[in-house]
Task: inverse folding
């Protein structure tokens, strides 16, 4: 027992001390946060940029007074000559426009919008929607309809999507948020299982290629060496995750206070970013989507615990197999033919997650995949943000534990033979033969 | 020290060890000889409990071999190496601790060994910065640092230059003098004669020969001698063919030096020969023709009639 701790210690320390570990640990959250910060920043920036000044030359005469200033556009009626205006426009500030409304505006429904730079789509849309309303009102009037009463027709509808929890309470459901988190988790666990599994395999191959393995197993049992390696690298993985979470929290706090003076700006910027679709006023109803409430509705504690449980279970299961593969080959290039069948059951739920699992998280495919030990780490994490009954999570976790005990036992039998076989390319048949060796 | 009884190890298509029994006396240097693929490594792995035999048992110091004995064995495998990226000192500490030493104990002993081999300044070097021979030295230290009672060395001199091979050989002999039993597996027969008290020869999974080196060599003696002499004043080479003391196998004659190879017969002794010769020639040298371990090895391994062993029939 004492010796396995020595092995774990060596595996752990030698990896954590590496420069690449520090680099990855600090760079990855920086990269992610940096990306989000950039998105926020650009959104905010573009919000400021889109504010337009529109000078109007109104040849029709009645249109300009109906155009209303708002937070995006400031109109100003101009009396100067057209050529003079164009000249002004050339020297004008950013996003200065000249709107020319012809005399036959109501019949031709054509206008010209001259811009100091490239015409801004947002400004165009804003102007278009206001002008459309003016034309609509004019046509209502011609048809003898009361514009005011039409304006009072409100066909906007709000859907309060709630899910009934086990206790019978209704809870606000934010499917979009769940979906986003599910995809993120699925990606993260898939990547980390393959990444750390491969590290175990590399470690085994390194020991075999260096020929140190026989020296070591004259002191400890092959099983101890294998488990020591797996546990040591697993702890490296967990250390990395904890550092990532920790660093991300710090960075988010710093950035959110530095970039946004108050939450309102952030919310507005984000809302605009998500919903600014050309023209259609109806969609702006979505701008009221409450991101803060949506994020609050996610149970992050449950997610984090489940992530660690399923990461650990999946890691133990797969890394044992990766260790067995590593023991059977002499170099990493040879390992390819074996890693493919091993990672297949991970890849399947990962690929499915983008469609089937997210769209039908409680369907039979999703449920079964989240129970089978090989696929459950990925599949279960995709389902959890949508809410999974506790008994299913517990059952799945228990099956996963059973799964890794079986694969570890299986892998250990191949490993102890494989590490002593040099210069022999093993076939799958041969691996099975090793498996049946007595000791 | 080690009593190996009827060990059988079967792999799916070949038998690696077929009923091997050996006795390794305490304090001896025991040569384990055999061609490639004979089963030496399989046997060594079983002694180190890396693998288990299909049948048969091994007694270590009178007790049935048990995992606790691992700490009393030092093993230098033929396929050996170190972690390339690890510092030498840390690596030694790790390997010594795996053998059950405490950290403090291990540090002291490693420092002592490093001083002895004059490699003190290697502590913070990485393995990849050392030459092959230097790595071998470090590896040797790792094998013996826990002061094992039984040291198993599989081709310990491969990778050493003659100077360092000599250094290591001295260390092996000293460890032996201090009481360690040594099992030395090799193909290098000349070193066997220098080092070993006992040998066992394994060929094709079977033991073909074992016992004390001196006895084995004696059993191969054939009463054959080479006599060098020069003729006395009258200049006549005596005619040996008439004597009943010995047969002449070969005669070589140079200008002032004659060499004759003889085999004793009719219970005659070397003294009889000397008496017979002493009045006829000036004897310069007499040496017994003793088969080398190399010859014995080749003889047993080739086993066919094409034996190169000099049988003077």
Result:
């Amino acid at each position: 027992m004492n010796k396995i701790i020595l092995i774990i210690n060596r595996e752990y320390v030698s990896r954590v001390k590496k420069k690449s570990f520090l680099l990855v640990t600090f760079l990855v959250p920086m990269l992610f946060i940096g990306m989000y910060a950039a998105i926020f920043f650009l959104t905010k920036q573009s919000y400021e940029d889109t504010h337009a000044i529109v000078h109007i030359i109104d040849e029709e005469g009645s249109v300009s007074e109906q155009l209303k200033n708002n937070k995006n556009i400031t109109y100003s009626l101009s009396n100067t000559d057209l050529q003079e205006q164009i000249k002004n426009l050339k020297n004008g500030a950013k996003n200065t426009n000249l709107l020319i409304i012809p005399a036959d505006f109501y019949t031709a429904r054509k206008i010209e919008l001259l811009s100091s730079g490239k015409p801004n789509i947002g400004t165009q849309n804003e102007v278009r929607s206001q002008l459309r309303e003016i034309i609509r009102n004019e046509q209502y009037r011609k048809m003898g309809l009361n514009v005011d009463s039409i304006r009072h027709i409100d066909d906007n509808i709000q859907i309060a999507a709630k899910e009934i929890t086990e206790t019978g309470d209704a809870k606000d459901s934010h499917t979009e948020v769940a979906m986003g988190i599910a995809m993120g988790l699925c990606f993260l666990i898939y990547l980390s299982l393959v990444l750390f599994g491969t590290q175990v395999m590399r470690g085994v191959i390194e020991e075999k290629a260096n020929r140190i393995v026989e020296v070591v197993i004259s002191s400890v049992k092959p099983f101890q060496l294998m488990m020591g390696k797996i546990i040591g690298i697993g702890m490296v993985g967990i250390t990395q995750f904890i550092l990532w979470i920790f660093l991300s929290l710090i960075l988010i706090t710093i950035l959110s206070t530095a970039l946004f003076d108050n939450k309102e700006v952030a919310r507005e910027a984000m809302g605009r970013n998500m919903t600014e679709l050309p023209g259609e006023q109806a969609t702006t109803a979505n701008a009221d989507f409450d991101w803060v409430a949506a994020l609050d509705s996610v149970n992050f504690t449950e997610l984090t615990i489940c992530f660690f449980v399923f990461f650990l279970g999946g890691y133990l299961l797969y890394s044992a197999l990766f260790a067995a593969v590593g023991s059977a080959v002499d170099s990493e290039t040879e390992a390819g033919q074996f890693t493919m069948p091993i990672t297949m059951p991970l890849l399947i739920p990962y690929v499915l997650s983008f469609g089937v699992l997210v769209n039908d998280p409680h369907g039979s495919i999703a449920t079964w995949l989240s129970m089978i030990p090989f696929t459950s780490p990925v599949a279960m994490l995709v389902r959890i943000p949508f809410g999974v009954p506790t008994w299913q999570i517990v059952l799945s976790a228990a099956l996963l534990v059973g799964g890794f005990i079986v694969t570890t036992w299986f892998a250990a039998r191949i490993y102890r033979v494989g590490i002593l076989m040099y210069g022999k390319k093993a076939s799958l048949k041969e691996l099975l033969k090793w498996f049946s060796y007595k000791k | 020290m080690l009593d190996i009884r009827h060990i059988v190890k079967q792999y799916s298509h070949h038998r690696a060890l077929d009923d091997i029994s050996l006795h390794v006396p305490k304090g001896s240097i025991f040569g384990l000889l055999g061609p490639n693929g004979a089963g030496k490594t399989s046997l060594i792995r079983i002694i180190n409990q890396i693998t288990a035999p299909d049948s048969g048992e091994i007694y270590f110091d009178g007790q049935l071999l048990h995992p606790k004995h691992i700490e009393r064995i030092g093993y230098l495998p033929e396929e050996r190496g170190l972690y390339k990226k690890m510092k030498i000192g840390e690596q030694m500490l790790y390997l010594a601790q795996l053998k059950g030493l405490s950290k403090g104990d291990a540090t002291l002993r490693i420092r002592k060994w490093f001083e002895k081999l004059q490699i003190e300044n290697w502590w913070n070097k990485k393995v990849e910065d050392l030459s092959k021979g230097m790595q071998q030295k470090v590896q040797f230290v790792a094998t013996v640092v826990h002061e094992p009672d039984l040291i198993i060395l599989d081709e310990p001199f491969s990778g050493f230059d003659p100077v360092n091979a000599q250094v290591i050989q001295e260390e092996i002999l000293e460890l032996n003098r201090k009481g360690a039993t040594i099992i030395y597996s090799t193909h290098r027969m000349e070193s066997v004669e220098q080092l070993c008290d006992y040998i066992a020869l394994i060929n094709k999974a079977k033991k073909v020969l074992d016992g004390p080196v001196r006895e084995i060599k004696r059993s191969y003696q054939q009463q054959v001698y080479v006599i060098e002499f020069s003729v006395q004043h009258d200049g006549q080479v005596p005619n040996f063919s008439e004597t009943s003391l010995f047969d002449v196998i070969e005669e070589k004659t140079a200008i002032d030096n004659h060499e004759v190879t003889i085999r004793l017969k009719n219970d005659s002794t070397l003294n009889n020969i000397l008496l017979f010769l002493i009045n006829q020639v000036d004897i310069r040298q007499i040496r017994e023709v003793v088969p080398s371990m190399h010859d014995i090895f080749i003889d047993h391994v080739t086993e066919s009639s094409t034996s190169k062993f000099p049988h003077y029939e």
Summary: Chain A is about 65% helix and 5% strand.
